[in-house]
Amino acid sequence: MSDVHHEGDSVTLDDGEVEMATEVVSGKSAGGLPVFTPQHGALHWLGRVLVFALPLAYLLMRVFGVTGIVGGGWSNSGLGLLADAFIIAIAVMGVNLITGYTGQLSIGHSAFFAIGAYTGLVLTQGRVSTPFFGDENVWDPGWTIPVAAALCFLVGCVVGLPALRLKGIYLALTTLVFVEAVRSILKYEKFEDVTGGATGIKGDKYTPPEYVFDFFGIKLPTGLDGRADLNQWMIYLSLALLLFIMLMVSGIMRSRIGRAMVATRDNELAAEVMGVNLSVIKTVAFGLSGAITGIGGALFGLKLGLVDADVPLFGLFGAITLLVAMVVGGAAQNWGPMVGAVFYVFVNEIARSIGEAPADYEAVFTITLIVLVAVVMVVVARYVMQHRNDIRANVSNGAWKAVLVVVGSMSALVAAGVMLLGISDGGKLDGLGGVIFGVLLILFARFVPFGAVGTFRIFRSRFVQIIPKPPSESRAAKAPEGVQVQGR
Amino acid sequence: MSENLLEVRGLSAGYGQIEVLHSLDFHVADGEIVVILGANGAGKTTTMRSVSGMIQRSGDVLFDGNRIGSARPDAVLRVGISQVPQGRGTFTDLTVEDNLRAGAYSVKGSIAADIDRWYDVFPRLAERRDQRAGSLSGGEQQMLAIARAMMNRPKLLLCDEPSLGLAPIITQNLFKILGELRDEMGMALLVVEQNAGLSLQLCDRAYVLETGHIVASGTGDELLNDDTVKQAYLGGAG
């Protein structure tokens, strides 16, 4: 009601007209002052750079072995890490489908990851008899991926049907039990012939194929040099699958089923009233999400070439990891899992290497850089949220303040880094990596609850002027049938 | 009696061991607006839920020649009963248009014409079609909830306390819209309400529900002038 007299808003309170409280539309300027639009939104682009470009640039430096700037020395394994990031991103896509989009908290998706990984190795090692498939029960690695997906879909449906009648924390606890149950089954000695029991399965690493496809003599060579280029092949394979799954999920979310999923999350009661069969929708979502995470698991197993039930990612640690990556990237955002998984894998690796390496200049610099990027992201996001009206009212003044905030926080962090260097005094920074990782996650949960991608979306929507679409020509011209309740 | 659109006989329902509704009898004729009036805890929402099949209930429920006394919600929806749930229940993270599409979840075939039609009725929704439903005001969300329920092309619309949390002027207009919908579409309405003054003016007939029993019934005017109703719902003053 308070905005009834807002300039340019033509809402009038005629008799009988339903007053729809006018909202302050983002970007609407009082008194004709400049409005941020994507074309000239300096802060908008700054946000984009901070959220995406800096981590990406850092990542590329690592992968392609640009050393001497921020440490380095693991560029070769950097390829492996990037493959890991894409593989985990696939697994996180699965969690995002059931927890992010459908709103059912699962602390059990690492079980699907484990099932997928075991499927890959069991089949490539010929540990089960498959009469009609495979050459003497030994499968081509590529074909184990759809099998893992199908198996995880079935397991997801069977487990999901009873579990999803529970809500909230009870569902979470049930999925938690699921993880431990799967681990116990994988270790169970009666199944040793298949799963390898407590020692797990040690197979050969996946050998990349020579050709991407060989279709009646039409061959597309991969250009890879056998097993030495496994990491590179895994990057191609997992990135292709990740993009395919992202496309598939975005298609699902635009379909009737996807709307039913989001409807179930937003309001179960109303969804049921619309005729959504809650247990069917939840079970299908759980099965699908299990299948997606299982694909990630199969890739993980094939890349590693060995599995056992005590791999941390197969247990509770893995389940939490997947959830954390989802939250960091942004729940219910299609790009969230990729961003979150890349963030997770690389920060985890850095934290680990810091824990092992002696504290030297580079390590401290690396820590400082990560903290710097995170804090600057957070500070700028907070600042922009709080002062968006000021910024809109006076662009130059606002931009100056932003620069001041950024420079200020940077110098504070550099000072902190120098202090840290002095304190550490060449000693080991044992365990500090974990602390930093924890602090980063807390910062994320507190200040960036919508994750990197979600925050970026909010950034964007703050600066994009939302202009109500005019009624389309055809609609305006058409003689209105039925009741005309609120006309202009 | 047989020409009644909705015929409810001996309807009992509750949650677990607790019975909330004790053998209710009521009916809604074609094109009629019926209000069930009741205070907090009288069983209004339970009545809605037992008609739409969301809870376990016993008794006969006949709708348009179908026995729906033990049907599940999706089956009830298919015979032509839509519900606007209490508190509107808009899907906050879906856009306005996707909310309408979700409303047609059980409709087979093209729904583009339906969407256009409800945009004509509620132009404000057309303006906000790409906005998240959670960013709408309370009045707009109630419009959306009604439009969404209408996407199912119902013969009977159940409204669970549409006035909840809305300013009096918005409630008044909302009831006006409901009346117009009935006039234009020949659709029947069953509304549960606490707001006796407005809802009794709107309705053709009304029932008064108290602790799971129907204690009074009559036309809107009759009940407006009824002393007990005046005492209980209109603050005693005429």
Features:
heterodimer, A: 488 residues, mainly alpha, two-stranded antiparallel sheet, 17 helices, 64% helix, disordered N terminus, B: 238 residues, alpha/beta, Rossmann fold, six-stranded mixed beta sheet, four-stranded antiparallel beta sheet, 10 helices, 10 strands, 37% helix
Task: Report on the architecture of this protein.
- The complex is a heterodimer of chains A (488) and B (238).
- In chain A, a hairpin with a 2-residue loop joins strand 2 (211-215) and strand 3.
- Residues 1-40, 66-74, 425-430 and 464-488 of chain A have low confidence and may be disordered.
- Chain A has 17 helices and four strands.
- With 488 residues, chain A is mostly helical.
- Chain A has two domains: 35-51 and 360-463, no CATH class; 75-314, no CATH class.
- In chain A, the strands form two sheets. Chain A has a two-stranded antiparallel sheet with strand order 1-4. In chain A, strands 2-3 form a two-stranded antiparallel sheet.
- With 238 residues, chain B is of the alpha/beta class.
- The two termini of chain B are 34 Å apart.
- Chain B has ten helices and ten strands.
- Chains A and B meet through helix 8 and helix 9 of A and helix 2, helix 3, helix 4, helix 5 and helix 6 of B.
